[in-house]
């Protein structure tokens, strides 16, 4: 028996005629909580002065926000729906219509971090290691917003926890955004925090960033087994490979290489 759910409006509230959407609130929550958690992790580091000053931390936050938005949007445009945006180029800027890629956002953050660190003569991998611990917080809120917006829903299922939104096609589906919130969000955060606090990986710049790449890829590939492929792409192979799994596979090997290099370097 499926779980029937009344859809929640994608608009959380309006201020002076301006609609504030749940998706925007998810991003804000992720950035705010991530900011304070980043500060907390810097204080937990092994002695010495903090990695970044208050002004540098504020500048980094601005760079990361820009990297997430620009990279996430361009990643979706180029990897998930290039034909549509080629025909409707102005829609590229309509981010409120949805369409963000985690893998694109990750690349955007990496580029922004390297540019930020280069100008200030800071090891970028030390920054990326801290960001790797806080990143799952944003993933958690983002997937909850996906569920509210009825986005990236799962494949049909006869499991008792399959969900049907009122007014939608009465086919129970896996609540795959909740699966991803639990794995890529909560579980990944707990694992990354424990690796930072209870192991020596934080003393090897790049090791935690590499671990995030590998662990996220494993969780994402698993959750893609229950998530319906994007309509405009479908399955990439006859045996059911999805774009998310392909990109995550590349991400796993990239993370493994970064992790190995972090241990080879003195």
Q: Would you identify the regions where 5 or more consecutive residues have pLDDT less than 50?
A: none
The class by helix and strand makeup works out as mainly alpha
Read across the widest sheet, the strand sequence of neighbours is 1-4
Number of domains: 1
The proportion of residues forming helix, as a percent range, comes to 55-70%
Q: How large is the radius of gyration?
A: 19 Å
SSE inventory with pairings:
Layout: E1 3-5, E2 11-15, E3 18-21, H1 22-44, H2 54-79, H3 82-87, H4 102-120, H5 124-148, E4 163-165, H6 176-198, H7 207-223, H8 243-264
Parallel strand pairs: 1-4
Antiparallel strand pairs: 2-3
Helix pairs in contact: 1-5, 2-4, 4-5, 5-6, 5-7, 6-7, 7-8
Written description of the protein model:
The protein has a two-stranded parallel sheet. α1 (22-44) packs antiparallel against α5, α5 (124-148) packs antiparallel against α6 and α7 runs antiparallel to α8. The protein has one domain (16-43, 50-264). It contains 8 helices and 4 strands; from the N terminus they run βββαααααβααα. β2 (11-15) and β3 form a beta hairpin. The mean pLDDT is 91. It has 266 residues and is mainly α. The chain has helices spanning 22-44, 54-79, 82-87, 102-120, 124-148, 176-198, 207-223, 243-264; strands at 3-5, 11-15, 18-21, 163-165.
